[in-house]
Amino acid sequence: MFTSERGVVEEWLSEFKTLPETSLPHYATNLKDKSSLVSSLYKVIQEPQSELLEPVCHQLFEFYRSGEEHLLRFTLQFLPELIWCYLAVSANRNVHSSGCIEALLLGVYNLEIVDKQGHSKVLSFTIPSLSKPSVYHEPSSIGSMALTESALSQHGLSKVVYSGPHPQREMLTAQNRFEVLTFLLLCYNAALTYMPSVSLQSLCQICSRICVCGYPRQHVRKYKGVSSRIPVSSGFMVQMLTGIYFALYNGEWDLAQKALDDITYRAQLELYPEPLLVANAIKASLPHGAMKSNKEGTRCIQVEITPTSSRISRNAVTSMSIRGHRWKRHGGSKGCRQNRFSNDVDTVSCCNFQSRFKYDLNFQKIVFKI
């Protein structure tokens, strides 16, 4: 770490301590524009033995619990890098050097699982129904949906998935580690639209590193530092895929594509069905070419909306068309029956004529013989 970068971090640490409370909103708004400070903080986090790491983690926690939205997002942007540093140190069995990072992660977790009154939060998510339109699809584009009796009985009903309440944690252990880290990634994904490009790049890089360290693909990616395998859970990988999916469409196509391949590779090795399902669904929905970089402006996932029309189609089925179709069918069948009857009559008449002609010839032969 250079002297100039160290000076930037030390100035940032001392500036916040002397800041009056009335100037906090203005300070929080201008903080995101300090790119040199952000890059210097990343270098501090990446050096577990740095003496600045402990005061930096303490100040980031003060930002998070201040209640100021911009300060909270400033801390969240470093969350992927903090998770990677903690997992890397834990894989090397050097837990004592990650004490301040572990305290910061636990502090953010314990703040997020309760509301402002101190009560446990219960997160809920309503699963959308394909029978109702959304920004992602229209029921008319799916095709005909048969209105069976079971479908009618479930019409209007929605399924809600709940998460929580989550217990408070005083320390990270092998049993609760990924429960806490998965919830932290969930909080990070909830604020993805506010994360800068450097944070999305960090997310893609740490996802690749976590998934390939200790496996043959690590030599292909040429990752150095950690050579032992880092255990992951299925839910944690699904949260990683959520962030990667957003990064794909928001200026980080190459890094996100590589991370998606690495997560799929690890999910296949672990035989995890949930991340495999999500990863394959993301791959199936990707366009053939690379997305254009969209690092400025509104961040969103691009979808195509089927145009709607208020006019009735010429081929639309109405009650009058059904009646007309029924009349034509009955009229046609009646005509067919009449044609078949007339043909039968002609056939019978012809047969009768032939038999009568044979009878007359036989009668003449008998008369002549007499």
From TrEMBL:
It comes from Cavia porcellus. Its main location: membrane. Keywords: Cell membrane, Cytoplasm, Membrane. One of its GO terms (biological process) is phosphatidylinositol phosphate biosynthetic process. Belongs to the Hyccin family. This is Hyccin PI4KA lipid kinase complex subunit 1. Pfam families: Hyccin. It comes from the Eukaryota. It is found in: Cell membrane; Cytoplasm, Cytosol. InterPro entries: Hyccin (IPR018619). GO terms for cellular component: cytosol; plasma membrane.
